[in-house]
Design goal:
Layout: H1 15-27, H2 32-45, H3 50-62, H4 66-79, H5 84-96, H6 100-113, H7 119-135, H8 139-151, H9 157-167, H10 181-195, H11 199-212, H12 219-227, H13 232-245, H14 250-262, H15 266-279, H16 284-296, H17 300-313, H18 318-330, H19 334-350
């Protein structure tokens, strides 16, 4: 994980600097304390040396000096703004300081720039990202953090645990569920197999979940997600079963509404969408589902109200702009429709991740 090289104009002066830099590099693996001491001297001699700030921050992080690490890594990011490793390490330091909004923002930025070719580091970054998303009850974002790890074959205990908690929509910190360890492990292995595209294992594990834990909150919802692209009636049955166990499960109501919209039944989508909004007025996907149902029923004014409310919750979610463009067009507001369509295209092309609470089917 080397920081980007500096231009010749930024190259440090030879003499003392070169000697210090060599000694610091040699100490990196053996003595973080010595490395931190030496790298601090190098950046004092050459404050524009991004690589020195990066390794100073990494050494301080190893020593659990998280404030010092944050300062050094922030400086490395300023000097080498396209270096994903610097921003990722900064996010890890901020996580340890419980500065979760900044930590998540910097981890997402690092992932967009590209993480280094170091599987253990990538796993650490993405698992921490999933934990922060779960703290905010954003289980879709948690799953998105973990999905690439399943594709790469990473099935470490931390990854399986994070997958299980996110899949069961458990807004808890990892390690805080000893009484449900077996359930979390089974759910984690099931959703990992699904995202790793190991279909035979996934079939078996999801079946086992339903047999062993039919009364546990989140299990039927997870099984419903498994069925949405395979068997819509089975998915609807599982989401309904989840509501018997957990009547206030917002995303089960949302998914029922979405499936009825997919099958061209907006009348049937209306009640579960309204219940989702009643239970969680700030849930983006509930507002969006209700707006879509109203739009399909040509109830244009209330549809616009719901979609505009969804837009306020998260202006960066592409699909809100898409359906709002349809609503404005239905209302004869062509200029507004063109604006929203253009915004949808821009966000979609930029690859904005899905937002919301829970694994999502659009």
């Amino acid at each position: 994980m080397r920081c980007q090289a500096q231009s010749p104009a930024q190259s440090p002066a030879p003499a003392d600097f070169d000697s210090l830099a060599r000694r610091a590099a040699a100490a990196l693996q053996q003595s973080p304390q010595e490395a931190a001491h030496l790298y601090r001297q190098t950046v004092t001699l050459r404050p524009s040396w991004a690589e020195g700030w990066f390794y100073l921050g990494a050494s301080e992080y190893q020593l659990k000096h998280y404030r010092e690490a944050r300062e050094a890594l922030a400086r490395a990011g300023e000097l080498a703004p396209d270096n994903g490793a610097a921003w990722a390490f900064l996010g890890l330091a901020e996580y340890e300081l419980a500065d979760y909004p900044r930590a998540m923002a910097h981890i997402v930025k690092a992932e967009a720039l590209g993480l280094p070719d170091n599987p253990q580091f990538v796993s650490t970054v993405r698992v921490r990202g999933s934990w922060m998303a779960m703290r905010a009850s954003d289980f879709t974002a948690a799953i998105e953090q973990l999905h690439p790890l399943a594709l790469s074959g990473d099935r470490s205990p931390a990854v399986i645990e994070a997958f299980g908690m996110a899949a069961l929509t458990m807004p808890l910190v990892p390690g805080a569920v000893p009484e449900k360890r077996a359930l979390v492990d089974l759910a984690g292995r099931a959703i990992w197999a699904l995202y790793a595209q190991q279909w035979t294992d996934a079939d078996s594990l999801f079946s086992q979940l339903g047999t062993q834990y039919p009364k546990e909150p989140g299990v039927h919802y997870l099984r419903g997600i498994y069925y949405v692209d395979r068997d819509i009636p089975a998915a609807l049955k599982e989401f309904a079963a989840e509501l018997e166990v957990t009547p206030a499960h917002v995303m089960a109501h949302v998914q029922i509404a979405i499936l009825h919209l997919r099958t061209g039944e907006p009348d049937a989508a209306l009640a579960p969408a309204r219940e989702a909004v009643r239970l969680a007025p700030g849930n983006l996907l509930g507002r969006l589902a209700l707006g879509r149902a109203l739009l399909a029923l040509e109830k244009t004014a209330p549809a616009m109200a719901e979609l505009e409310a969804a837009l306020k919750i998260d202006p960066a979610y592409p699909h809100t702009h898409f359906y709002l463009a349809q609503a404005y067009r239905q209302a004869g507001r062509e200029e507004d429709a063109r604006r929203e369509q253009a915004e949808f295209t821009k966000l979609k092309d930029a690859g904005n991740p899905a937002a919301g609470a829970g694994p999502v089917q659009k």
